[in-house]
Amino acid sequence: MKVLADTCAWSLLLRRGNPAALNSEEQIMLGVLKEAIQDGRVAMVGPIRQEVLSGIRETAQFERLRQALSAFPDQPITTADYEEAARLYNFCRSRGVEGGGIDILLCTVASRARWTLLTDDGGIQRCLEVLKTAGSP
What is the pLDDT of residue 7? Predict the structure, then answer.
C-alpha cells in the first residue's frame, strides 16, 4: 500500500538533529517513511511538496531538497477531490471539529487512492476520527 507522508513526517526525515532524541511515535513514523521510500511506496502531492519546500532560506539548500523530492512525482488531485474535501470539511465543522482545508484534502486524496496517510497532526487525526464514525474515509 502506498503511503502519503504528511509534512510532519518529511520534517522528521529532513531534520539535522539526533534521531535518538525523537519520541517513540516519531521514531515509528520515521521508520515507516524510510521503509516506504526504500520500497517505492511513497506518494507525493503538490500541497505537501510546497509545504516541505517552504521556509528554506538558502537557495542552494532549497535546490538540493527540490532535486531530492523530484524522485517522487506528484499524484493527481482532481476536481472531484477538491469538491469532496469541501463536503468533508463542512461535515467535520458540523460535528465541531475544525481542520485545515489542505488537511482535509489530504484525507480525501488518501482515502480515494486507498493510501495510508502518515501523520501525527492532531487536526488531521481528529478529522479522520469524525469521518470514520460517519462511514466516510
Answer: 94
